[in-house]
Amino acid sequence: MAPDPAVVEALRRTDLFGALSDKALRRVAAMAKCVPHPPGKVVTEEGGSGVGFHLVTDGTATVQVGGQARANLGPGDYFGEISLIDGKPRSASVAAETELRTIFLARWNFAVLLDDEPEVTKNLLLAMCARLRLAESH
Prior knowledge:
- The chain is built from five helices and eight strands; from the N terminus they run ααββββββαββαα.
- The protein is an alpha+beta fold.
- It has one domain (5-107): Jelly Rolls.
- The protein has a four-stranded antiparallel sheet with strand order 1-8-3-6. A four-stranded antiparallel sheet has the order 2-7-4-5, with no helix packed on it.
- The longest helix is centred in the last third of the chain and has 20 residues, at 118-137.
- The N and C termini lie far apart (44 Å).
- The mean pLDDT is 91.
């Protein structure tokens, strides 16, 4: 089944997936699900299991660490990218402020893709390294 073109384009606009070839990007998008979240829903809970990645397509969400608000997320922002790779517990809680829609990638599916598609693995690693360097420079 062909992936939704809107999902392909949303993923293409991220630093994590934007450098992928069309073929690799379509393979990632084919694993994705669009998920609605009502206002107030805790989408991920700090310390909870890391089951995947969410890319916000509509609405807003709040990020909390240790019960303190840290950031607001909107369309184009994402969370869960670290847990997508390592499956470790969540480092923050994210709750829907408004009606929220996300593109969700489950870790158990994505792990297979990382083994099968070296291009995806390499690009994800490069994007994460760039983010680490940026964080270290501040």
